[in-house]
């Protein structure tokens, strides 16, 4: 049985084969028992970091349908497994107890904000998009003697963001074009 002195890391460092204290001398029983969150994950989901236009690939480790770790994907030619500080902290986007899960809404002419659940807010948005399309739909334009078929709405527009990748921009363009919108822009920087 070891004495308390022999279990002391400094003693192990000075008397053992690890004089710099970077390996065996620095390890305790608790350290030996630690298991990586990635080693116990049920599955790995491939994703893309949402913070900027670089599009760093991420591996999202899931255990019991809960995200346990997010790391850079080493197979990605974009980031080669590395993530910036914001990307490294992206797990907090979905697991933080302070994450906002409702939508703030102020009714027309109202003075107070109320919380709405996301499903209710999405239904309201869908209703308003359909209403704006219906109210602003144009079959034709131009003077009466020279009408042109346009099939468009001027009541809906889209401005994409820099965090959207090519595939998302493609889908947004298709969606808004299918709704008849012609004012579709993107402010991507690269």
From TrEMBL:
Leading EC class: oxidoreductase
Cofactor requirements of the protein: [4Fe-4S] cluster
Matches recorded under PROSITE patterns: 4FE4S_MOW_BIS_MGD
Main subcellular location: other
EC number: 1.2.1.2
Single Gene Ontology MF annotation: 4 iron, 4 sulfur cluster binding
Pfam families xrefs: Molybdop_Fe4S4
Record key words, sorted: 4Fe-4S, Iron, Iron-sulfur, Metal-binding, Oxidoreductase
GO aspect biological process, one term: anaerobic respiration
GO cellular component: cell envelope
Localisation: Cell envelope
Domain 4Fe-4S Mo/W bis-MGD-type as annotated: residue spans: 42-98
Family: Belongs to the prokaryotic molybdopterin-containing oxidoreductase family.
Name of the protein this chain belongs to: Formate dehydrogenase
Biological source species: Blastococcus saxobsidens (strain DD2)
């Amino acid at each position: 049985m070891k004495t308390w002195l022999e279990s002391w890391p400094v003693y192990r460092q000075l008397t053992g084969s690890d004089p710099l204290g970077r390996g065996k001398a620095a390890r305790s029983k608790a350290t030996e028992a630690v298991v990586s969150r990635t080693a116990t994950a049920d599955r790995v989901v491939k994703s893309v970091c949402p913070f900027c236009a670089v599009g760093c690939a991420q591996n999202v480790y899931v255990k019991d349908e809960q995200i346990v770790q997010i790391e850079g994907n080493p197979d990605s030619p974009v980031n080669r497994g590395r993530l910036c500080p914001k990307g490294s902290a992206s797990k907090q986007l979905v697991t933080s107890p302070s994450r906002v899960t409702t939508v703030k809404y102020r009714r027309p002419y109202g003075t107070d904000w109320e919380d709405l659940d996301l499903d209710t807010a999405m239904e309201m948005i869908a209703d308003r998009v359909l209403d704006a399309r219906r109210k602003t739909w144009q079959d034709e334009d131009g003077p009466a003697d020279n009408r042109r078929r346009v099939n468009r709405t001027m009541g809906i527009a889209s401005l994409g963001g820099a965090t959207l990748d090519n595939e998302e921009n493609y889908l947004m363009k298709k969606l808004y074009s299918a709704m008849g919108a012609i004012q579709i822009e993107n402010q991507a920087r690269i």
